[in-house]
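Class, carefully examine what follows:
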Amino acid sequence: MRRCLALFVLGSLFTLSRAAFGAEDAPAAAEAKCPYPVAHDAPLDAKERLADDKPSYTRYRVEFNGIKKDRVPAYLYVPKDGKAKHPAVLLQYGSGGHKGTFYIVALAEQFVSRGFVCLTIDVPMRGERKPPRDQRGWQTMFAERGRFQWYCGDYSRAVDYLQTRDDVDPRRIGYAGVSWGAITGITFTAHDERVKAMASIVGGGNFMGVIADKVEMPKETVEAAKSFDPVYHVHRIAPRPLLLMNVTKDQLVPRFFADALHKAAGDHAKKVWVETDHFFQGVDRYAVLEDVIAFMLENLSETKTP
């Protein structure tokens, strides 16, 4: 597992698009065109059913049409606080997770306890969208080009869905991602101004930079890389609030990747380092992640959003 995310990223670079080299020219790399598909006017055909009825919140199993017109299953958490409108967060997990993974459910419960509507989707090939057992494996993970863009397109559809809900204030939608959910989420948020604040937890960027002096890549590969590696897009989030939370002993996202992302984000971003590893072992994970929720509360307050 130590190199799981690194292998996932490197495989993605060669089969889904390609990746990035130097962070120094990041602002010039991806200025105009959105690098993933959107379909804001396409029908969602959203459905929901009760999944859990807790004293302080309700969890629904929802689904809606994704960017490829397949169905996107999700968990939606709604607080029982008597308020008509709430801020909302799209919350996504690491490369091996799904909407029911224990740590993402726990974090969603933290968000809903603080008055957020929280949505977590099953991304392509995960959770209810996982292929049959005999079709699983690394080869299927990298078999289809454009997987990164597919993730981002489905995130866009998830925000489309949140904006249709009467209990969500469409002016106060944020994104929080962990690991691969942070990496994909940065590029997504950079090009979707409906997302008013972003929290990246153990994310990174500039994934090919670590081998740039060992492998000569064709120019077209480098240009394709710039379409999705977050180091080339993170600057576009400004002036919207951005939190970059990384750890000092990360087994999966080496310091090189985190430093490259921090540098590309510039002084605008709030940067936090926690003395722990990728899995937050040895610290109170929930206490640390309260800082993420506090960041969202501050920046998605009614006084902060126009």
